[in-house]
Amino acid sequence: MINQLVRKSILKIEKINWGNIPNDKGARLLWGENPIAPIGAVNAIRNEAIRVNFYPSPTKLILRKLLAKYNKVSPENIIITNGSDEAIELIAKVFISEKDQVIFPVPTFPVYKSASLMMGAKVKTIPLKKDFSLDIKKLFKLVNNKTKIIWIANPNNPTGNILLNQTEIQSLTTKLDCLLVIDECYFELAQVTAAGLVNNYPNIVVIRSFSKVFGLAGARLGYIIANKKTASYLNRLQLANQVFNVNRFAQAAAQEILKNPKIVRQLINKYNRQKQNFEKLLNQIESIRVIPTKTTFCLLKINEDISSTQLKEKLQKKDIYIKNCSLYQLLGEKYVYLGVPAEKYQQFVVNAIKKVVGEKL
């Protein structure tokens, strides 16, 4: 009986088995988390604990003002969300109706698909080229009068490359009658953004995250930058349905980071140093190729006669958790995704990979 009560669109969403992934054991590298928690933000969370009996701010005005200053926009351009996942879902709920069409490249972040299917949309995909670049002409050919949203991760997850520069975004937007959603959760590393275009183009929506360089993945905090009119519709639904969506600890942590631009620069520089050091170590492994990324993860292509599934399973026995890219369309069994481990784990991870692929330490 229960199957008859469930919305048909929900049944189209693929089941995902995340397995038994430990919270605090070994090297957990499958989500591109920052291995270092920002101390100032941690202290802000501790100080906020005494107010745990009170609801968080429903308007999040202090944080919105700080984000507006950081992004050189108005607080009315900002919508605060419970991670970028909620931002994607909120956009889908506000703009997608049943039988609308959405478009996104593949491979890419899977939540665009599940959020769109949830709302009853028809999904159209465009395969990336062999070098992982986006064919804009082919993208245009998929657009029709039923197209409601084009989802673009920029840089893309899991390929790690920039799909559209600002000029291309602006050019694309002027020719579209649909929403162009640019997911910039790795902005602090990529430094390519469409945020400066939102006031002139109401169909551009930008998504950002505090989970990556800012090291607040466990706090669940993201935000949307949009034209004031566009933001007003997103705000209408959020204030009606999820007014307390972001807890007071996440708000306090983000406020502490944004109050001091020096802290932001330090977090970015420190993360870049850690990643560069890890990539140097990975490049010592002859049987893999490190593909350059502008993200908080590394993408590796395996040249040896071993699959990504086998590599993942063997590393897991050593308490090293990576992502098998066969989960993503078009990548297959020769690519793996791994975040940047803490410096004390970096040589350990590299040695473990060497051992699995049969290279000398």
TrEMBL record:
**PROSITE patterns listed in its UniProt record:** AA_TRANSFER_CLASS_1 (PS00105)
EC number(s)?
Answer: 2.6.1.-
Q: How would you classify this enzyme at the top EC level? A: transferase
Cofactor(s), by name: pyridoxal 5'-phosphate
Matches recorded under Gene3D superfamilies: Aspartate Aminotransferase, domain 1, Type I PLP-dependent aspartate aminotransferase-like (Major domain)
Write out the entry's keywords from A to Z: Aminotransferase, Pyridoxal phosphate, Transferase
A Pfam match: Aminotran_1_2
Q: Where in the numbering of this chain does the Aminotransferase class I/classII large domain appear?
A: 48-327
Q: Which GO terms describe its molecular function?
A: pyridoxal phosphate binding; transaminase activity
Entry superkingdom: Bacteria
Q: Which family does it belong to?
A: Belongs to the class-I pyridoxal-phosphate-dependent aminotransferase family.
Protein's name in the database: Aminotransferase
